[in-house]
Amino acid sequence: MSRKFFVGGNWKMNGDKKSLGELIQTLNTAKLDANVEVVCGSPAIYLDFVRSKMDAKLGVAAQNCYKVAKGAFTGEISPAMIKDCGVKWVILGHSERRHVFGESDELIGQKTAHALENGLGVIACIGEKLDEREAGITEKVVFAQTKVIADNVKDWSKVVLAYEPVWAIGTGKTASPQQAQEVHEKLRAWMKTNVSEAVANSVRIIYGGSVTGGTCKELASQKDVDGFLVGGASLKAEFVDIINANV
What we know:
Layout: E1 5-10, H1 17-29, E2 36-42, H2 47-53, E3 59-62, H3 79-84, E4 89-92, H4 95-99, H5 105-117, E5 121-126, H6 130-134, H7 138-150, E6 159-163, H8 177-194, H9 197-202, E7 204-208, H10 216-220, E8 227-230, H11 239-243
Parallel strand pairs: 1-2, 1-8, 2-3, 3-4, 4-5, 5-6, 6-7, 7-8
């Protein structure tokens, strides 16, 4: 089963119209591997701007959304609003949403269900913190997080699973290609046992955590690494090198 390589850029709370406009121009004119699906996660306030400027072959994602369509939820955005901007993806469960903003597994599951019901693709993030890895409970943590997402998914073709060890996000520490492959392989085995063999074979499991132009090629060569969710480097020209990691 060949899985189309997927590279997501998570711009987080960065950029303005000038800098993002320049980045979009770089991506629109770069020679990108046609066998890679590219999706850029824009700050909510720029979703409309980014979608209008970005080449149609490149996808755009919101970085979060709420679990209902509308209502008295000050500061939130809904999948319906995201779609109204022509945007087809959302990132959910990022470690910063979990650990900075206190989002629970349960809430992330509810958001996932609602986003999928409303036709958005979901980049669902999971990953352990440093103390959890050192305590030897990486599998326990990521399986529990994955279960709550899986319980809320009917159509896996719209889901990309992003494994991001929290200790490697923005720290400059990257999980070694072997560490990444080990967790990805175990996640695929979990999917086979708990969802289905067909889904396990087809779902894309991407890696995030200080991915750079320098680390991407060896990571991409791992059997169960189907792409990347890129933070800081997605705001730089080297994002093109990461998209082209298999070339």
